Amino acid sequence: MLKQTLIVFFLFLLKSGLVYSQEVSLKIGVKESIGSEMLQERREFIVSLPSDYESSNLSYPVLYVLDGNETALLEAIVVTRDLGVKMIIVAIPNTDRDRDMMPLSTPTYEVKNPEAKNFLSFIGSELIPYIEKKYRSNGERTLRGTSLSGLFVMYAMLEKPELFNNYIGNSAGWYADMQPYFDSLIEKAFQKKELFDGKKVFIANSLNDPYDPDKEVHYAMQQFTKKVKMDLGDRLSFEYKTYEEYGHVPFPSFYDGLNYTLEK
Known about the structure:
One of its GO terms (molecular function) is hydrolase activity, acting on ester bonds. The protein has helices at residues 2-16, 70-83, 97-101, 116-134, 148-159, 179-189, 216-232, 253-262; strands at 30-36, 41-48, 60-65, 88-91, 137-146, 166-170, 200-206, 237-243. By secondary structure, the chain is an alpha/beta fold.
């Protein structure tokens, strides 16, 4: 369904004259930036508003897209439109992906300066306040990440569960040598069970992921799912979904994840 929607969308662009053979003239968002004290750098992001934003007085939920280049933003626009949901989309491009997404360094994935904590503080203390002051947000926030930024989504869920209402991690999880770190983080996070009340979490992986040949990540997510069900029960809505016919970052996982968070 989504693949067909993408094809139709691009055909529409071609027929409407918005896409030319040598020139692209299509506004999908506005580039903005803020100076971050947390990261000690200026961070750019792209904001895409619902089509009726200027003509309405409505407030909208906000979708924060990690690894947020123009392609990721366009995917988010297509998915939200296909689902019939109007959201403010904030796409956050990378400057130093390993540094920002990783909370630790291990032999499996070595990072010189893992600073996910600072990046999460940037999002929570600087970016979100900026967005919610400038735009008509209704206060509902969704965070979406893929692969390494999917790991960050899970880190954010455990480190500051109150920051977002919904968490979507596609090809998300951790390797075996990261388990002790996340065990400690999980134990600490689940001591405050009330912070997870009403949250919606969707985690997806492929069973044919070339980056997880021994299924370390998949097994870790299976165990994490059991832990969530045992310790948090019905406090939150949680789904771990696997796909066999797709590779890394399963194609339908964004659509399925956002659809899951929209279910009443």
